[in-house]
UniProtKB/TrEMBL annotation:
<feature type="region of interest" description="Disordered">
    <location>
        <begin position="433"/>
        <end position="483"/>
    </location>
</feature>
<comment type="function">
    <text>Receptor for retinoic acid. Retinoic acid receptors bind as heterodimers to their target response elements in response to their ligands, all-trans or 9-cis retinoic acid, and regulate gene expression in various biological processes. The RAR/RXR heterodimers bind to the retinoic acid response elements (RARE) composed of tandem 5'-AGGTCA-3' sites known as DR1-DR5. In the absence of ligand, acts mainly as an activator of gene expression due to weak binding to corepressors. Required for limb bud development.</text>
</comment>
<dbReference type="GO" id="GO:0000978">
    <property type="term" value="F:RNA polymerase II cis-regulatory region sequence-specific DNA binding"/>
</dbReference>
<dbReference type="InterPro" id="IPR047159">
    <property type="entry name" value="NR_DBD_RAR"/>
</dbReference>
<feature type="domain" description="NR LBD">
    <location>
        <begin position="213"/>
        <end position="447"/>
    </location>
</feature>
<dbReference type="InterPro" id="IPR000536">
    <property type="entry name" value="Nucl_hrmn_rcpt_lig-bd"/>
</dbReference>
<dbReference type="InterPro" id="IPR047158">
    <property type="entry name" value="NR_LBD_RAR"/>
</dbReference>
<dbReference type="Pfam" id="PF00104">
    <property type="entry name" value="Hormone_recep"/>
</dbReference>
<dbReference type="GO" id="GO:0002068">
    <property type="term" value="P:glandular epithelial cell development"/>
</dbReference>
<dbReference type="GO" id="GO:0003417">
    <property type="term" value="P:growth plate cartilage development"/>
</dbReference>
<dbReference type="GO" id="GO:0035264">
    <property type="term" value="P:multicellular organism growth"/>
</dbReference>
<dbReference type="GO" id="GO:0048384">
    <property type="term" value="P:retinoic acid receptor signaling pathway"/>
</dbReference>
<dbReference type="GO" id="GO:0008270">
    <property type="term" value="F:zinc ion binding"/>
</dbReference>
<dbReference type="GO" id="GO:0004879">
    <property type="term" value="F:nuclear receptor activity"/>
</dbReference>
<feature type="compositionally biased region" description="Pro residues">
    <location>
        <begin position="1"/>
        <end position="10"/>
    </location>
</feature>
<keyword id="KW-0479">Metal-binding</keyword>
<keyword id="KW-0804">Transcription</keyword>
Length: 483
């Protein structure tokens, strides 16, 4: 039998907490009774609503029902988080007597967690560290002592009282008490290893993946460098006894040999430049400008990468090995010590052939050179070279992120050496009996290094007239054409 609870006589009126009458209608009556005898009986027993008042079946006064003050959502199941009712008729009442309807207050927040006092010094604990409840001071003291393998000494009887006042007076007894209360060495080591692992994962080689374009660029630059500059292990070294023991102003025999090798090196540098992606796409005038400005930089960089610190020697491309004194006598003069010092600074970088080739390409393709016709185009060619060197160096040395900027700083040092080298070439012209080899002179005719030397003794008047020719014609006529 279907039964529906009816509100008791006083259930329609309830005293609110502020004295206002709160009315609960709670009846959603359909317009017609449902079919069936049982349902009809239940229907007839439901209260009726007329003009806002509810009529009770049988004798007794009707009672009014005020509408709720606040609107109710159309979808009650969404507000309550419940499924909608199955029946079409629902009566919802709450049997209370005369107690007030007080809305439930929000539950208070949980009390803060309280730890036991520090097991070491009895100060206020900040949590469990390395296995025991401890304060921040004792936690840090224990961690530092274990990580640095500290050895302390007690100046009394090794039984000092440790509390928050005296804990800093005897480090030996404080550390012993840390062990006594249960602090764990392994917990410190595990925490340290975990942090090291996180740092290693962040700087792992996999996080510096190169794009296919950069991989191809690196391959081309590295191949261009290796094919135009054999490594030290590929050379058959040989030495000479010429003026090996004392410095002289100029050893003409060594100068002739050095100038011959320098000419060959310049040809190889031009060949290296022509193999760099995008270089031959520049105008002829810009190609010559870049080669003149950077040729001495690259020449010095290549010589210094063949430095042998044990013998304090430099090895040239044909295997000729000269010591510091012989380099001085071959024409380097006062520039010698500066070049050897730079070579020593390159050793900690441990640059391989790929990094040397990329750094040489960055020296060459540089948009800040004077008299460039299209500096923006040159800068655009340099950008992927910089990115390639940065990622390659970082992938090769994951734990040494500072290597890339240190390599770039060497470009500034190279330019300083090149400027000194150009100044040395001016005085060298007065020391050698004959003319300067043409390709070396071509390289040294760079306005970035020194001004026109037509007024210097031994200068070539023809060259001076060429310098006064139009820029494009002059550079075109002096372009080195190595085969």
């Amino acid at each position: 039998m279907l039964t529906l609870p009816l509100p008791p006589p006083g259930a329609g009126r309830r005293q609110g907490r502020r004295g206002n009458r709160q009315w609960v209608l709670g009846v959603l009556a359909p317009s017609s009774p449902p079919s069936g005898s049982l349902c009809t009986t239940a229907w007839n027993r439901l209260p009726r609503v007329r003009d806002g008042c509810m009529e009770r079946p049988g004798p007794g006064p009707a009672y009014c029902a005020k509408p709720p003050a606040a609107p109710v959502s159309q979808d009650l199941s969404l507000l309550l988080g419940r499924n909608p009712p199955v029946c079409n008729v629902a009566v919802e009442t709450q049997s209370t007597s005369s107690e007030e309807m007080v809305p439930s207050s929000p539950s208070p927040p949980p009390p803060p967690r309280v730890y036991k006092p520090c097991f070491v010094c009895n100060d206020k604990s900040s949590g469990y560290h390395y296995g025991v409840s401890s304060c921040e001071g004792c936690k840090g003291f224990f961690r530092r002592s274990i990580q640095k393998n500290m050895v302390y000494t007690c100046h009394r009887d090794k039984n000092c009282i440790i509390n928050k006042v005296t804990r800093n007076r005897c480090q030996y007894c404080r550390l012993q008490k840390c062990f006594e209360v249960g602090m764990s060495k392994e917990a410190v080591r595990n925490d340290r290893n975990k942090k090291k692992k996180e740092v290693k994962e962040e700087g792992s080689p996999d996080s510096y993946e190169l794009s296919p374009q950069l991989e191809e660029l690196i391959t081309k630059v590295s191949r261009a460098h290796q094919e135009t500059f054999p490594s030290l292990c590929q050379l058959g070294k040989y030495t000479t006894n010429s003026s090996a023991d004392h410095r002289v102003q100029l050893d003409l025999g060594l100068w002739d040999k050095f100038s011959e090798l320098a000419t060959k090196c310049i040809i190889k540098i031009v060949e290296f430049a022509k193999r760099l992606p995008g270089f031959t796409g520049l105008s002829i005038a810009d190609q010559i400008t870049l080669l003149k400005a950077a040729c001495l930089d690259i020449l010095m960089l290549r010589i210094c990468t063949r430095y042998t610190p044990e013998q304090d020697t430099m090895t040239f491309s044909d295997g000729l090995t000269l010591n510091r004194t012989q380099m001085h006598n071959a024409g380097f003069g006062p520039l010698t010590d500066l070049v050897f010092a730079f070579a020593g600074q390159l050793l900690p970088l441990e640059m391989d052939d790929t990094e040397t080739g990329l750094l040489s390409a960055i020296c060459l393709i540089c948009g800040d050179r004077m008299d460039l016709e299209e500096p923006e185009k040159v800068d655009k060619l340099q950008e992927p070279l910089l990115e390639a060197l940065r990622l390659y160096a970082r992938r090769r040395r994951p734990s040494q992120p500072y290597m890339f900027p240190r390599m770039l700083m060497k470009i500034t040092d190279l330019r300083g050496i090149s400027t000194k080298g150009a100044e040395r070439a001016i005085t060298l012209k007065m020391e050698i009996p004959g003319p300067m080899p043409p390709l070396i002179r071509e390289m040294l005719e760079n306005p970035e290094m020194f001004e026109d030397d037509s007024s210097q003794p031994g200068s070539n008047p023809k060259a001076s007239s060429e310098d006064e020719a139009p820029r494009g014609q002059s550079k075109g006529s002096r372009s080195p054409q190595p085969d």
